[in-house]
Amino acid sequence: MKLLDTSVLIRILRGDETVRALLKELDGEELCTTTLTQFELLSRAYHRGLTKEAGVIRRLLRSLNLLLLDASASERASQIMGSLLRAGRPVNAIDVLIAGIALDQEVNELITCDNDFKIIERVHGAPKVILLP
Predict the structure, then answer these.
(1) Is the Cβ–Cβ distance between 67 and 3 less than 8 Å?
(2) Sequence-distant (≥ 6) Cβ neighbours of residue 4 within 8 angstroms
(3) How far apart are CA 7 and CA 115, in angstroms?
(4) Which of 47, 66, 67, 119 is deepest in the core (most CB within 10 A)?
(5) Three-class SS state of 108
(6) pTM recorded for the entire structure
(7) 2-131 CATH choice from 3.40.50.1580, 3.40.50.1010, 3.50.50.60, 2.40.10.340
């Protein structure tokens, strides 16, 4: 299972050709995202009053397996944040929660455009991150 982070979904919504090519390569793979990404995407749409865009976002999210933040994933995220803080490398808390969900759900790869996830991978050792240009 491969997790698509918020940054990748934004690029999909914008019609980015690099990401479209990647999706063609991933055809047949189980793709997922998280309820935190759902929150990030929809809150931006609601903030800007973009009702039509919110519908497009919902359709995109329905095409993916949606992973939840539960107690187990929260525990994993807490371990990640502890590692980051001990190393003096704190990152965005939502990214840490997404990484916790990925580890808890045994996601094979987390695909992102956000360098915070590479920091998490380097400091904590997981999850495996594919950083797009």
Answers:
(1) yes
(2) 12, 31, 32, 33, 37, 64, 111
(3) 10
(4) 67
(5) coil
(6) 0.93
(7) 3.40.50.1010
